[in-house]
């Protein structure tokens, strides 16, 4: 593989293929649904424990606030996995890396279900996040290089939306499952699903191209090259804050006890699903806007929803609507940021996409800590804090937009 270069083109539909890459396009109809399910399963592992905090706390005899480390530990490993495995997908093949990641994720997830204490569970969750982090960079790089250009924007948005949808869907599944089974069985079932998904992915994905002549270090060298793109850095910061808010709001709902009934909690978590389903369709008209503009719009919408949530804490229906608006805004930010990084990454788009995802889950690592620090002061304090974070993200998006305009 040749030395990494960073493309300056901003045309998402026409990235330059890597030397030696196969030219055949994969079937979007077969690939995207499988990838969407894999994305739900992978990222869902971060959110699965939230509805099970009380059961896990009782099993391990620890305080409720200590349970936030179960989320942060996974997010920390997940972020590291993107940087570690993204370049490997460029060098050794996206299908190969994704299959190994899915298989290994099944093993470590099963071990997590057997953790006898929080002290053992935390390093297992870090390892789980690290290994699961091999899946998204390979998947997004495959979608941006092997799906036909005319279908690529919708395909990538569907996959990224599935990562976001895991925020809600994983919580809905675990909240329902824990009513009928021990929390350990939720992780054991996830392990089995990883194995099944690996088998389906093996059947669906096209063969990898033969490895290029370059060294693996050449793929890792793309990461600092991406980080030297000054117009991208503010957008990565906005994406990081957006993901932090996404994790913090749902963790905070659990910690503040603003909703206690299982039915109300279920409805509150499910309220964002219609918006998530609509996001791939919204991507079509949004494609007319430049990516930094999309990020700016998404952050402003998310900030406004959190300001309104300050005054809606006693009205569950209104709060559910505002959470849906929040998720809609954040659901615009993540795909736009990922696609921007991928476009600028040139032939090393997996490494570039991994940088974007790394920034997201660095933010996700901080999300539970933000919730833990503010939840004791009530939901209004949490909402004001998250609104401030999103206003900062909007400022970063505006900065990145102006930098891009000055360089174009």
Short description:
This protein is mostly helical and 408 residues long. The protein has one domain (28-204, 219-407): Growth Hormone, Chain: A (Up-down Bundle). It is built from 17 helices and no strands.
Helix tally equals 17
**Secondary-structure-derived class:** mainly alpha
Q: What pattern of helices and strands is seen along the backbone?
A: HHHHHHHHHHHHHHHHH
Number of structurally distinct domains = 1
Overall shape: it is globular
Uncertain regions: pLDDT < 50 for 5+ in a row? 1-22
Rg from alpha-carbon coordinates: 20 Å
CATH top level label: Mainly Alpha
Kindly state the percentage of residues in helix. Answer: over 70%
How much is the average pLDDT?
Answer: 83
Q: How many beta-strand elements?
A: 0
Query: Proportion of β residues?
Result: under 5%
The CATH architecture classification is Up-down Bundle
Name given to the CATH homologous superfamily = MFS general substrate transporter like domains
Instruction: Report, as a whole number of angstroms, the end-to-end distance.
Output: 29 Å
The biggest sheet amounts to: none
Query: Could you name the CATH topology?
Result: Growth Hormone, Chain: A
């Amino acid at each position: 593989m040749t030395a990494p270069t960073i493309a300056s083109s901003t045309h998402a539909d026409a990235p330059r293929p890597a030397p030696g890459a196969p030219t055949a396009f994969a079937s979007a109809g077969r690939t995207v649904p499988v990838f969407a399910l894999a994305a739900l399963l992978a990222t869902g592992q971060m959110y699965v424990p939230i509805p099970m905090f009380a059961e896990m706390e009782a099993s391990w005899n620890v305080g409720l606030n200590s349970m936030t480390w179960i989320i942060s530990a996974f997010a920390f490993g997940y972020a590291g996995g993107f940087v570690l495995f993204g370049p490997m997908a460029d060098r050794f093949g996206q299908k190969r890396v994704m299959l190994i990641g899915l298989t290994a994720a099944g093993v470590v997830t099963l071990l997590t279900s057997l953790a006898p204490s929080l002290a053992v569970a935390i390093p297992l969750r870090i390892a789980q996040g690290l290994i699961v982090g091999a899946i998204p960079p390979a998947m997004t790089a495959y979608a941006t290089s092997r799906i036909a250009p005319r279908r690529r924007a919708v395909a990538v948005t569907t996959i990224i939306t599935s990562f976001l949808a895991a925020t809600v869907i994983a919580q809905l599944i675990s909240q329902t499952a824990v009513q009928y089974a021990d929390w350990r069985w939720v992780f054991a079932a996830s392990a089995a699903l990883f194995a099944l998904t690996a088998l389906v992915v093996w059947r669906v994905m096209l063969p990898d191209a033969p490895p290029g002549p370059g060294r693996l270090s050449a793929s890792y060298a793309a990461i600092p090259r991406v980080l030297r793109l000054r117009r991208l850095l503010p957008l990565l910061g906005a994406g990081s804050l957006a993901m932090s808010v996404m994790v913090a709001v749902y963790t905070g709902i659990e910690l503040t006890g603003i909703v206690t009934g299982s039915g109300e909690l279920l409805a509150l978590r499910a309220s964002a699903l219609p918006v998530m389903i609509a996001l791939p369709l919204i991507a079509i008209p949004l494609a007319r806007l430049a990516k930094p503009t999309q990020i700016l719009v998404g952050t402003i919408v998310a900030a406004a929803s959190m300001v309104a949530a300050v005054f809606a804490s006693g009205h569950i229906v209104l709060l559910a609507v505002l959470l849906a608006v929040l998720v809609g805004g954040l659901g615009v930010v993540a795909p736009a940021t990922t696609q921007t990084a991928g476009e600028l990454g040139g032939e090393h788009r997996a490494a570039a996409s991994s940088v974007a995802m790394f920034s997201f889950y660095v933010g996700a690592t901080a999300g539970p800590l933000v919730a833990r620090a503010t939840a004791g002061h009530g939901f209004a304090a949490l909402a004001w804090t998250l609104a401030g974070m999103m206003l900062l993200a909007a400022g970063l998006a505006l900065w990145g937009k102006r930098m891009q305009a000055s360089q174009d």
